[in-house]
Amino acid sequence: MLEPKKIRRRRQHRRRSSPKGKAQRGTRLAFGSAGLKAMTSGELTARQIEAARKAITHTVQRSGKIWIRIFPHTPVTKKAAEVPMGGGKGSPEYYAISIQRGVIVFEMDGVSEAVAREALRRAGHKLPVKTRVVFRHGRES
Question: Domain containing 131 — which CATH number?
Fold first, then answer.
């Protein structure tokens, strides 16, 4: 699973209000010819990203190339069940990323358009945001 090698602080603010609005960066295909674009904003966990990646890899049967354009840097903390108030912030449970709408989450290349569309569609079902499959203009099929 995706997780930072080294973190500066164990606990951070989650910035749950930041995904509002439209993304300014990371909205265009940079590496591949097909991509999965987030149409709504939200928070993606490392497990969700990994599940979507596995769905893509399984569908294309390890052919082509896949790029993951996002990385979960933010640690999300949780306190144990039935712990009384006080006692500080909980310990880190998992890592997540807050994304805005319009961000490209995955890109792929080296497979036909039909296979890429199906693989990215299946990956979109694993994510908690609405997604759309996009292609580079002027692509030869």
Answer: 3.90.1170.10
The domain in which residue 126 lies consists of: 34-82+98-135
Answer whether residue 15 is part of any domain. Answer: no
The position carrying tokens 């144990």 is 80
Beta-sheet strands, E only, within the chain: 34-38, 42-45, 65-68, 74-78, 91-99, 104-109, 131-135
CA separation (Å) from 52 to 3, 44, 65, 117, 134?
16, 11, 15, 14, 16
Task: Look at the alpha carbons of 116, 122, 124, 126 in this order and tell me if their dihedral is positive or negative.
Answer: negative
Give per-residue pLDDT as tens, 6-45. 988 889 887 766 678 899 899 999 999 999 999 999 999 9
Say if 24 falls within a structural domain: no
Q: Is residue 66 assigned to a domain?
A: yes
Separation in Å, CA 62 to CA 50, 57, 111, 125: 15, 5, 10, 20
Name residue 75's beta-bridge partners: 95
The closest of 130, 116, 134 to 28, measured between CA atoms, is 134
The tally of domains found in the chain comes to: 1
Residue type, 15: R
